[in-house]
Amino acid sequence: MKARNLYALIQQGGAVMWPLFALLLITIIIAFERSISYWLVYRRDEQYTQQKLESPLAALDFIAMIAPVLGFLGTVTGMISAFRSVSEATSIQLQVVAGGLYEALYTTAFGLIISIIATVFSFLLDVVVSNICVEEKLL
Questions:
Q1: pTM of the complete model
Q2: Domain residue ranges of the chain, discontinuous segments joined by +
Q3: Which of 25, 78, 111, 125 could covalently link to 103 via disulfide, CB atoms 3.0 to 4.6 Å apart?
Q4: What is the rounded CA–CA span in Å between residue 27 and residue 23?
Q5: Nearest-CA neighbor of 139 among 3, 47, 74?
Q6: For residue 27, what are the contacts with CB-CB under 8 A and spacing of at least 6?
Q7: SS3 call for 121
Q8: What is the full per-residue pLDDT of the chain (139 aa) written as tens digits?
Q9: Which residues contact 20 (CB under 8 A, 6 or more apart)?
């Protein structure tokens, strides 16, 4: 069995995996940055409007929306690659089709995983913002 690492998975997923990986990094960076920022706002007892605290979370919502679409784009490019390999082969074997199917499955799964991560972080951080700004609603 071959050793697997993130770079090998990205290579097997094809070109669409690189933007997906960038979206994953952006998601993690935004989630940690917002978590620290909200914690500091809470500790310092600073007053911000809910709209101002929630506006950076729109990026997480956008990533949650676009990641599956990019994953499905990878599925399409993987299937195109698989069918191109079949059309160019003199004899059809499973290995001819497998490369394109790898690409299709990896990108789809990676896109869905990124979407789930971004959605969960967006929801949790939105709950934190609601709790920080609860006094504002009473005024």
A1: 0.80
A2: 6-138
A3: 78
A4: 6
A5: 47
A6: 60, 63, 114, 117, 118, 121
A7: helix
A8: 454 777 777 777 778 889 999 999 999 999 999 999 999 988 888 788 888 888 889 999 999 999 999 999 988 888 887 777 777 777 767 776 676 677 778 889 999 999 999 999 999 999 999 888 865 444 3
A9: 13, 67, 70, 71, 74, 107, 110, 111, 114
